[in-house]
Amino acid sequence: MNIKYILLLLFPVLLFSQHSIRFKVVDENNLPISRAIVIVSQNNNQIRFGTTNENGILDKEIASGQYDCKISKLGFTTLYNAVLVDKERDFEFILKEEINKLKDVVITSRPKIMRIKEDTISYNLKAVVDGTENKIEDVIKKLPGLDIDQDGKVLYKGQKIDNVLVDGNEFFGNKHQMVTQNINADMIEGIDLLTGYSGFAKASGGQKGIALNLKTKDSYKNKWITDLELAAGLNVSFRFHSNSFKFFKKGNLAIISDYNTIAKTPISREDYNEMRIVSEVDSENGEFKSVETPTFLNPNAFIKDKRNAFIGLNYTSLLGKRSKITMSNIFNKTNIAEENARLQTNIGETQSQYSFLENKAATYSLNNSSLKWEFNKSKSTFISYVVGFTPNGDEDNQDLLRSANEFRYNKSNTNFSFAHVAKVQSTLLKTINYKFTARHSVDDNRQKVDLFSQQNLFDSTFDTINQNQKNQEVNISLNNAFTITKKSNVFSLKINFLSQQDRFNSYVVQNDTVDIGLKLQRQSIQANLSWAKKWHAKLQSMLGFNTTAVKSQFKELQDAFTRYEPNLSLTYILSGLNKISFSYALDHQLPELNQVQQTDFIFDFQTLVKPSLVSFNQMLPKNTFSLQYFGVNPKNQSVLFSTLSYDVEQNAVSNSTKYNADFIETTAITTKNRKSIKGLVLYDLKFKRLPFSIKTTLFYLKSIGFSQFDGVNNQVEIQNLTNRLQVISNFKKSAVQFGIDYNFIRRTLEQNIADFKNTTQNHQLTLSLRGKNSTKLKWDLGLKMDNQDSGFRTNNTFFLNANIQYVFAKDFKFIFNGNNMLNLNKSQLISTSFNQSFFTESVVSIRPGYVMIGVNYSM
């Protein structure tokens, strides 16, 4: 099975010492940013993902450990931050808006690939398409400044764009892979990147983003386009996939379905989390719900067996010249099996290691429905209403063997999320752009954990423990934004009224019943002032000041306080599209309910969470500095983006760990400052005469934070380096193309207690060939070599993949799919992870390779 890695992401984390973490994303005026992308990663694997909703907040369940966060939103500069999770806590990130428009630039090299005019980059597909492309993602990968990640998401400047449109109309919202992995490359005649996309609204004042618009050929419009594929083969491999589209002048209709036993999931981690928090509700101030992403969405091959069923429906239509409706429904159900052997090291003790054998069977189901209505009442007034709901059901069953003690660990989770948003954009007094947003959301999550052991658990008198938890969160927000433009100045004032209520109930049923309930309420008023100034053609600035008055109540305690947060950004245009930006922001985080809980509760079979030592009203300041550069060379079509950031977080929330004979205790605490520095370089190099391009990504992170073991401070230093080099050919009039992809990943973890130090690294080299023979035959062949070094042992794997399509009759193709064909029997991979208490090396059994043959029918 081919392993795909996300760049900029760190190592995966096992589900130990999970904590509820809240991320809040705001702009320079402290106005929450909706649909901002937050990716939490570790060891080159995406751990959590989501988009913020109208309160700019996203909650996640994350295991203790050091993570890297990538926060992005089109129209804003991407922010990279390292976070240390060892207790429930809040993180707040400030994104800087890109306030300058693109100038008219025509690429002067031959052939011309890009034409840039104001907020639109138009690509000349004839200059890059060679006929070996299958789906539209194969074309996008070749375009300067753009890329596709392993989930089919479109990236610009290293961040995911907001939407992929078809003929200007939405298509499954921001689930890009529904387009990139299902629409054939030969259906598209042009692609535009819209860097100032504001959707259907004609009224000014709305939040702008970035969208990619695919323009279909006339021969594919106003008729049904259907694609059916059926294949089966060795190692119980089977897949049925169907696409059915109709693209018409006023919208589109699409039905996509899939059933397979080859570990393919049409939705990504991002999609799963977005749907669970009903992130499709478009608003300026997002919320980040506490969502635990299931294993079935892991972007790697660490699964022994996986069966997936999926169906998705999308309908977009203009009801008239001024009104539009968009509806979608997605259902996904997955059954998986996992098997791995773990070597677990207590990193707070010298030479303390344990071995585990783990088997896991799980079922995950997701159903998401959303409806959006948009209405341009006039040229100056826009109204919209969005509603979405998502019921889910997850169930994990695990068997673990440690020495002579066998555990059975069952965990079930049911969740229901509902949210709706009303929005009005208008113009007041002919000069003031006004936007009002009202949002109401409810998230109800119920979890049940059952533990069965051959010996007593957690120093109790029970070898069986049953624990039930219920978390309910209700949010109401009213947001007002006023913007006025005078010559080269833009002034804005945002006033927000926010109400948040969190309830937590936990009870353990044994011979005695322990029932505990907690409640945290917060009401706040935010005032955000900003001034953007274009001093001359090259220099722009933005100065902001945020004030938030908060009233907080926890149990019988109450407090009221005010936060003051300045922010600043400067942008200097060097020449053409080359610019450099500097930004500074001060923000304060507030603990959430899961960070201040005051009771014992069981997290998993070996982790007991003790009452928090963090105060519910404690503010945690953070200073962030960042420097960015973005440039396009019109002579050779190259694109360069780089960013360097440094942040200092005072009184960071962390964990104190205490080791017992057969389990650990963790307690939330505040520690010394946490500091981190991050650097990212993305370089897309084109040549005027050479028939290939080079894409390079370099990412570096160094973070220094603190935890505790039995109350003794422990300094933790993490360094991560990832480097990816891609060479892509573009021979004209050639039937064969090639690709080379090299990845180097290195992570070092070091702490002063017990002198623990580990360096894990991977070398991955992929060689690929693709070709065609007239219009009948298309093929691609890939060989991947992966050298893994966990610091404990090494492992080498080789993957051979092949895909062949041959047209043998009108509308019919013969297909051959071979995946991991060098390992048709059982194979294994090595992975590592760590949290505040453990460092774990896992030898994971992955699904054996397969060979399938089948038929594809298109009409």
From TrEMBL:
InterPro entries xref list: CarboxyPept-like_regulatory (IPR008969)
Protein name, as recorded: Outer membrane receptor proteins, mostly Fe transport
